[in-house]
């Protein structure tokens, strides 16, 4: 068995020289290694957070009640971070923020303006191109959230709802949920909210789903509102923290991000390891039990292009075959794309065991950070056919991911399709070569 190469740099392994300390990475669920049209600039499927050359973190300082001259000055000052809480047409509370030498701030949202470090757009389940997402009205905030990382060990990362705009302001309008805290500070929630779930037992083979919570603008933890944009906030959960742990999920109402710490990534299989596992499967020369032709997973670069040797599976039973089109006079070795699209999802009877169910092509899960362990890919999600290790399939099939404004369902981490069937995945049954 292969062991993953330690490609990822952990904070403890960095010297004080040129390699910056890496805090961790954020991955968008639903993308199998890269965006459909490729990663470009700040718009990509994963974002690495590393220690900045100079700290850019901020912390709250002065609170200005009502529309005072100081409050107006704080809002208009382009060099001054501030959060404005509009209580009524005539009353606004402004909280000034001051520079914090001990933290680095990273901002995430839909806006392409310069304060946003990681541009995130709505994830459309199973979409093959970004054009599929253009017609959808986005529910992700332009300045959705910010992550503050401690510049010194243990490099703690904390999440807060809302991000500062180009004028270094955050505005919570009249309709946003907001309130005065017991220590006379202000706090509030964004329109569609920022939800966080910390898995139990970290992101390991023993991981179990945690409980979804909502994070406030000041980083406090609350139970969920009745719906995403309800006026009434949930109950404060004082025993829980906004501190991100390896495997924390962050939902921005339209896209869900996975946080992996640098230490966690050092234990995760690498793309090289997954490639070695792919080659190991292909070297065993699995065969179609009907056509007796050898099957092979295509290279990671061709992860969305059907191949004539592509393995297909009957999702009801897990029997793996080559592509076949019963009763057709077409050349059996040529995969007809139109026919393939017609066949996907249609109920077909497995010739091995007569179980009826969807018949779909198998694709390797290429985003290594979604894997819980380094075991071989033996299971496939249903109905999409993305293949990964058993413990990875079991974990994601148990995670209720937010969908819309008040529903949750399990989904494939590689394509975001809602899982179906009794378990949401199936164990693959390959047939070895007959010779």
TrEMBL record:
What is this protein called in UniProt? Answer: E3 ubiquitin-protein ligase pellino homolog 1
- Region (Disordered) residue spans: 33-61, 328-348
Q: Which residues form the Pellino FHA domain?
A: 16-276
- Output compositional bias ranges, type Basic residues: 41-54
Record domain Pellino RING: where: 281-435
Family to which this protein belongs: Belongs to the pellino family.
> InterPro entries, per this entry?
Pellino_fam, Pellino_FHA, Pellino_RING
Mind telling me which PANTHER family this protein's record contains?
Answer: E3 UBIQUITIN-PROTEIN LIGASE PELLINO HOMOLOG 1 (PTHR12098:SF4), E3 UBIQUITIN-PROTEIN LIGASE PELLINO-RELATED (PTHR12098)
Keyword Phosphoprotein appears in the UniProt entry: yes
Keywords from UniProt, A to Z, are: Phosphoprotein
Q: Which domain of life is it from?
A: Eukaryota
């Amino acid at each position: 068995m292969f062991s993953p190469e330690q490609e990822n740099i952990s904070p403890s392994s960095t010297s004080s020289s040129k390699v910056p300390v890496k805090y961790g990475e954020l991955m968008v669920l639903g993308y199998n290694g890269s965006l459909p049209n490729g990663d470009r600039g700040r718009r990509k499927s994963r974002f690495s957070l590393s220690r900045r050359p100079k700290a850019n973190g901020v912390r709250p300082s002065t609170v200005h009640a009502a529309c005072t001259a100081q409050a107006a000055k704080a809002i208009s000052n382009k060099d001054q971070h501030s959060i404005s809480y509009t209580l009524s047409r005539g009353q606004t509370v402004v909280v000034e923020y001051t520079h914090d030498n001990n933290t680095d701030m990273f901002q995430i949202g839909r806006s392409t303006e310069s304060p946003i470090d990681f541009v995130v757009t709505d994830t459309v389940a199973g979409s093959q191109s970004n054009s599929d997402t253009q017609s959808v009205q986005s529910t992700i905030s332009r300045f959705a959230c910010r992550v503050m990382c401690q510049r010194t060990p243990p490099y703690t990362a904390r999440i807060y709802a809302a991000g500062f705009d180009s004028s270094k302001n955050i505005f919570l309008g009249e309709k946003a949920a907001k309130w005065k805290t017991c220590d006379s500070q202000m706090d509030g929630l964004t329109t569609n909210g920022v939800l966080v779930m910390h898995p139990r037992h970290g992101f390991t083979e023993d991981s179990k789903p945690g409980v979804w919570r909502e994070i406030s603008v000041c980083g406090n933890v609350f139970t969920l509102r009745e719906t995403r944009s309800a006026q009434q906030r949930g109950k404060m959960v004082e025993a829980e923290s906004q501190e991100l742990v390896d495997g924390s999920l962050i939902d921005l109402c339209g896209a869900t991000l996975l946080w992996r710490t640098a230490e966690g990534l050092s234990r995760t299989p690498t793309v090289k390891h997954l490639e070695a596992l792919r080659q190991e499967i292909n070297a065993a020369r699995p065969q179609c039990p009907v056509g007796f032709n050898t099957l092979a997973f295509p290279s990671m670069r061709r992860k969305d292009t059907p191949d004539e040797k592509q393995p297909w599976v009957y999702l009801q039973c897990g029997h793996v075959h080559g592509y076949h089109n019963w009763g057709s006079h077409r050349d059996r070795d040529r995969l007809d794309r139109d026919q393939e699209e017609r066949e996907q999802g249609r109920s077909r009877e497995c010739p091995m065991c007569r179980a009826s169910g969807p018949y779909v092509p198998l694709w390797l899960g290429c985003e290594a950070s979604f894997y819980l362990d380094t075991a071989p890919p033996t299971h496939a999600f249903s109905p999409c056919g993305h293949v990964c290790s058993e413990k990875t399939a079991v974990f994601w099939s148990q995670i209720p991911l937010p969908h819309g404004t008040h529903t949750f369902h399990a989904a494939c981490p590689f394509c975001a399709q809602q899982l179906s069937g009794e378990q949401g995945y199936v164990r693959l049954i390959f047939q070895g070569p007959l010779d």
